[in-house]
Amino acid sequence: MRYFKPDLLNDANSLEDPQLFRTASLRFERKLRLYNRQLGLLEGRVSSAAWLFMSRVNRHDGTLLSIETGDFVSGVNQTDRDHLVNRRRAKVKVRFAEPAAGVVYEIVYSGIKAFSLEYVKVPGWRWALRNCFDDWLIDEWTATSKSHISHEVLFSSGAWFKVIFERVNVRRCRQERRQ
Predict the structure, then answer these.
(1) Sheet holding 114-118, edge to edge
(2) CA distance 115 to 85
(3) Which of 79, 111, 123, 173 is at 20 to 30 A from 71, Cα to Cα?
(4) Where are the domains of the chain?
(5) Distant-in-sequence, close-in-space partners of 106: CB < 8 Å, separation ≥ 6
(6) pTM
(7) What integer is the mean pLDDT of 75-87?
């Protein structure tokens, strides 16, 4: 994370030390202004649906439903050798629920340069690693080059993922309610 490092988030949520909380909150507001300024530069590099998701959807406290990675993400089931050898393209697909709005988003990244996922306890992290990824705490979309964008997501548990990609598609779906 370039702007919202875990130690800043940890300090900005400090309830024990009011001075630490105030100082960290001011640092957070400065970082947020810098982040929003650079985020605006990405608008022309992504689809309108992706831009709407990046700039308007409240992802905080959302739920990670799934992450899928592979050469045939999104339903291709062909197994013949010619198809497998000549048409493979790595993709990453993330399904995210915004429970308050009753919406599921499907984010598909392509032109993958790198993908990382960590599910480990962060030393000194305010929230203990539970048996889940926990809430979507914060994320950053940043340019890494003229052709690639990075999306990093930090969860309340301390788990995180990062994908560096060329293209992203976002699809909004109605969340199915269980009876």
Answers:
(1) 114-118, 160-165, 149-155, 135-143, 62-70, 91-98, 103-110, 167-174
(2) 22
(3) 173
(4) 47-174
(5) 93, 94, 95, 170, 171, 173
(6) 0.85
(7) 58
